[in-house]
C-alpha cells in the first residue's frame, strides 16, 4: 500500500506528500478529524505519532505535542483505536511513528497484530536503527507492516544498502543533523545526497526533518520521491485546528505540483 | 582485534545495546574504535594514570571507620574515600578519561548532562584542563537544588543550560544532551556521566571508574590480609557502584550490594529504585531496568539526592541483578538524611547525600556481614549542606 502510494505519484511525475501528526493532540478526541483533514488535503501517506515521554529524536514542537497528548490520557491502545476509526472512513495508508519502549511494554507480537488489525501499513521506530536488535527487527519485518528505515547525513555510504535491505515501503532520509523541528533553510548539499541514495537503493526515498514551507516542500519534491512534514503540521494545528492543517498541507501540495 | 570486532556492539546478557537515532550510529562506531585503540596505546594509559595521580589526587585512601563500625553493630567498616578526589566525587575518574579520549579524537566541543552537578563540575574541570568548549545540560529543578554547583561550573568556564522539559531533572537533561549530540555530532563528544547510554558508554565509563575497585581491593588486602565480606555502593546510574564492584566480580565470596534510593518508600511511588521496583525497558539508548507505567511511558523518579533521581540504571547492573552476582537494596530519603548526620558526627566526614544511602545500609545491616565491609563513599556533601539545611527548616541560616 505504501510503496503503491509512492508509485502512483511518481507515475504522474510528482512526489508523495507525507504529513506527520501526534495522536491525541491537541485533544484526546482530535486524532480522527485531523487525519481526515490531512487525507482530504492530499496526504499520500500519514505518519501517526505514538506519544512517548522521552522523545529524544524530537525538537520542541513534537516534544510539546507528545507531553500534551500523554497528559490528556493518550495510550498506545488509544492510538490504535483512533487509527481504526480513521480506517473505517478513509483508505490513506498510515505509518505508526514511535519509540521502542511503548511497543516493548505493550508486547511486540501483540502490538504488531493489533496495529495491523487497526489498519496500519507501516512502522517507523526512531530508536531502532538498522542492526540494533536483529530479533525485534526480524519480527517486524515478518509482519505485514512495512518497516520504514531511516538514513542520516552521517550514515556512511556503504551502510545505506544495508539499511535499505531491512526496510520496505519507503526509505526516510533525514535532511539534516539534529532533531525534528522547522527550519527556514534547506542544506545546499541535500540534492546531491538524495541523488546518491536514490541511485543506491530500489525503495522510494522520502525526505523529512525541518521542512516547513511550500517553497521548501517544492524544492525537496524536485529531488526526492516524497516529502515528510511534521512540526509544521503541528504548528498549523496550533494556529487553526484540523481545517488549518488541511489548508497548510494543500498549500504544500499545490506548490510541489506547480 | 579486527576492525569488525572493535565496532561490534557489546551487551551485558540481553541488556544494553544501541537504541538511538540512526544519526548517532556512525559516531558510536567511531567512538568504539577510538576507545579500543586508546586502550591499546601505552601513552594514552600513562597520560591518564598521571592525571589521576597528580591532578585528581589518586589513589584515594581506604579508611577504617571504627566509630561508624561501632554504630553499625560492631561491624568492621572501611570507607573508600572517593570524596577526597579533586572536585569532590568519583565523577572525575570518568571525565578525565573521556576528555583525554575526545582530544585524541580531535573533538573540541564537549557536552554533558548532570543531576547533582558533580558530573557537570567534573566535566567542566576536565574541559578547563584541556581547553575544550563545554556545555552542561541540567534540569531546572536540579539547578535550584544544586545552585552552588551551577556557579562552580560557570567559574570553570562551562555554559550551563537549564532544561525545562518533562520532569526537569536528570532524565530530561540527558534527553537534551542526546539531542545536542545528534545535532552537533561531527564536532562534539558527549561525556556521559554514568554507566548508562548506548554502547560503548556503559563499558567505557565502567572501565574508567574501575580504578576505584582495583585500588580498594589492594588496600583491603593490605589492611586485613583478606577480601571483604561485602562491597557496598549507592546506585543512581550506577557508575560508582560498577567502579568499585568490577575488580571484585571474580571474587565469588565477596558480596556486592547496590543501594538504590527508596525516596519516600518503595510503596509510595516516589522513589528511584529501578532495579527493585522497575521492569526492563529502553531509555537513553539501552535496555535495562526502568521505572515505567503500564503504557511504557517512563515514570518520574524521586530522591532527596539529585544524583540518584533517575528512573533508569546502567545495563550491567541489570545483568548483575538477574545473574544474582550482585544484590540490590534501597534506603529511604529519611534513612539517608540520618546517615548524613551520623557519619558527620561519628567520623567527621560530611558525605554526599547519594553516598549517604550506602552508609545508611551499613548502619542498618552492617552487623549481618561476617567480615569487613567496604563502602564506596562516592562524594562529599558540601553541595548538599544548603539543601539539607533547607529541608530541616534552617534555610534562613544560609
Ligand atoms: C557523589 C555522587 N555519588 C553517586 C552519584 C550517582 O551516580 P552513579 O550511580 O553513576 O555513581 C552521583 C551523581 O551525581 C554523585 O554525585
Q: Would you mind describing this structure in some detail?
A:
The complex is a heterodimer of chains A (258) and B (398). In chain A, strands 5-4-3-2-1-9-8-7-6 form a 9-stranded parallel beta sheet. Chain A is built from 11 helices and 9 strands. Chain A has a single domain, classed as Alpha-Beta Barrel (TIM Barrel), CATH 3.20.20. The two termini of chain A are 26 Å apart. Chain A is 48% helix and 14% strand. In chain A, helix 2 runs parallel beside helix 11. Chain A has 258 residues and is α/β, with parallel strands linked by helices. The mean pLDDT of chain A is 96. Chain A is globular. Chain B is α/β, with parallel strands linked by helices. Helices cover 43% and strands 18% of the residues of chain B. Chain B is built from 17 helices and 14 strands. In chain B, the strands form 3 sheets. Chain B has a 6-stranded mixed beta sheet with strand order 3-4-14-9-10-13, with helices on both faces. A 4-stranded antiparallel beta sheet of chain B has the order 1-2-12-11. The longest helix of chain B is centred in the N-terminal third of the chain and has 15 residues. Chain B is globular. The termini of chain B are far apart. The complex binds pyridoxal-5'-phosphate. The site of pyridoxal-5'-phosphate has 21 residues of chain B, from helix 6, helix 12 and helix 16.
Structure characteristics:
heterodimer, A: 258 residues, alpha/beta, TIM Barrel, nine-stranded parallel beta sheet, B: 398 residues, six-stranded mixed beta sheet, 17 helices, 14 strands, binds pyridoxal-5'-phosphate
Amino acid at each position: 500500500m505504501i510503496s503503491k502510494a509512492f508509485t502512483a505519484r511518481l507515475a504522474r511525475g510528482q512526489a508523495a506528500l507525507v504529513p506527520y501528526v501526534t495522536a491525541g493532540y491537541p485533544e484526546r478526541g482530535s486524532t480522527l478529524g485531523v487525519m481526515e483533514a490531512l487525507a482530504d488535503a492530499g496526504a499520500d501517506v500519514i505518519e501517526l505519532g505514538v506519544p512517548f515521554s522521552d522523545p529524544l529524536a524530537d525538537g520542541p514542537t513534537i516534544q510539546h505535542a507528545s507531553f500534551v497528548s500523554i497528559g490528556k490520557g493518550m495510550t498506545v491502545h488509544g492510538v490504535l483505536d483512533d487509527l481504526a476509526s480513521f480506517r473505517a472512513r478513509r483508505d490513506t495508508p498510515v505509518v505508526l511513528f514511535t519509540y521502542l519502549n511503548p511497543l516493548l511494554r505493550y508486547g511486540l507480537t501483540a502490538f504488531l497484530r493489533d496495529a495491523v488489525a487497526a489498519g496500519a501499513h507501516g512502522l517507523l521506530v526512531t530508536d531502532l536503527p538498522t542492526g540494533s536488535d536483529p530479533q525485534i527487527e526480524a519480527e517486524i519485518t515478518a509482519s505485514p507492516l512495512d518497516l520504514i528505515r531511516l538514513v542520516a547525513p552521517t550514515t556512511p555510504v556503504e551502510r545505506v544498502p544495508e539499511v535499505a535491505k531491512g526496510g520496505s515501503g519507503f526509505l526516510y532520509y533525514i535532511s539534516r543533523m539534529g532533531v525534528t523541528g522547522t527550519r527556514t533553510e534547506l542544506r545546499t548539499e541535500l540534492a546531491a545526497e538524495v541523488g546518491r541514495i536514490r541511485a543506491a537503493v530500489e525503495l522510494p526515498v522520502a525526505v523529512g526533518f525541518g521542512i516547513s514551507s511550500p517553497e521548501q516542500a517544492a524544492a525537496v519534491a524536485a529531488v526526492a520521491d516524497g516529502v515528510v512534514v511534521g512540526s509544521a503540521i503541528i504548528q498549523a494545528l496550533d494556529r487553526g485546528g484540523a481545517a488549518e492543517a488541511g489548508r497548510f498541507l494543500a498549500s504544500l501540495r499545490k506548490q510541489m505540483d506547480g | 582485534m579486527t576492525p569488525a570486532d572493535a565496532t561490534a556492539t557489546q551487551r551485558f546478557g540481553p541488556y544494553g545495546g544501541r537504541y538511538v537515532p540512526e544519526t548517532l550510529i556512525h559516531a558510536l562506531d567511531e567512538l568504539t574504535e577510538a576507545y579500543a585503540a586508546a586502550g591499546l596505546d601505552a601513552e594514552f594509559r600513562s597520560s591518564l594514570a598521571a592525571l589521576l595521580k597528580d591532578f585528581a589526587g589518586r589513589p584515594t585512601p581506604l579508611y577504617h571507620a571504627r566509630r561508624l563500625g561501632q554504630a553499625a553493630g560492631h561491624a568492621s567498616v572501611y570507607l573508600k574515600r572517593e570524596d577526597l578526589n579533586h572536585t569532590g566525587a568519583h565523577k572525575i575518574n570518568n571525565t578525565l578519561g573521556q576528555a583525554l579520549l575526545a582530544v585524541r579524537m580531535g573533538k573540541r566541543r564537549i557536552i554533558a548532562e548532570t543531576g547533582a552537578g558533580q558530573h557537570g563540575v567534573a566535566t567542566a574541570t576536565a574541559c578547563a584542563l584541556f581547553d575544550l568548549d563545554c556545555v552542561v545540560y541540567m534540569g531546572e529543578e536540579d539547578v535550584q537544588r544544586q545552585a552552588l554547583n551551577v556557579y562552580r561550573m560557570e567559574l570553570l568556564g562551562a555554559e550551563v543550560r537549564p532544561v525545562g522539559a518533562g520532569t526537569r531533572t536528570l532524565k530530561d537533561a540527558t534527553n537534551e544532551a542526546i539531542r545536542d549530540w545528534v545535532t552537533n555530532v561531527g564536532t562534539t563528544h558527549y561525556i556521559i556521566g554514568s554507566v548508562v547510554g548506548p554502547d560503548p558508554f556503559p563499558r567505557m565509563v565502567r572501565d574508567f571508574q574501575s580504578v576505584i575497585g582495583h585500588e580498594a581491593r589492594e588496600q583491603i588486602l593490605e589492611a586485613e590480609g583478606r577480601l571483604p565480606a561485602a562491597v557496598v555502593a549507592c546506585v543512581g546510574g550506577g557508575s560508582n557502584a560498577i567502579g568499585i564492584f568490577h575488580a571484585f566480580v571474580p571474587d565469588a565470596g565477596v558480596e556486592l550490594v547496590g543501594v538504590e534510593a527508596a525516596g519516600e518508600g518503595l510503596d509510595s511511588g516516589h522513589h528511584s529504585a529501578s532495579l527493585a521496583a522497575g521492569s526492563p525497558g529502553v531509555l537513553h539508548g539501552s535496555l535495562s531496568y526502568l521505572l515505567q507505567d503500564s503504557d511504557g511511558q517512563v515514570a518520574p523518579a524521586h530522591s532527596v539526592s539529585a544524583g540518584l533521581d533517575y528512573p533508569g540504571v546502567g545495563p550491567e547492573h541489570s545483568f548483575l541483578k538477574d545473574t544474582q552476582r550482585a544484590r540490590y537494596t534501597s534506603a529511604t530519603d529519611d534513612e539517608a538524611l540520618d546517615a548524613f548526620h551520623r557519619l558527620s558526627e561519628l567520623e567527621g566526614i560530611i558525605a554526599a547525600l547519594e553516598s549517604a544511602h550506602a552508609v545508611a545500609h551499613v548502619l542498618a545491616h552492617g552487623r549481618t556481614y561476617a567480615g569487613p565491609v567496604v563502602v564506596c563513599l562516592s562524594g562529599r556533601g558540601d553541595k548538599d549542606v544548603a539543601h539539607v539545611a533547607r529541608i530541616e527548616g534552617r534555610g534562613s541560616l544560609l
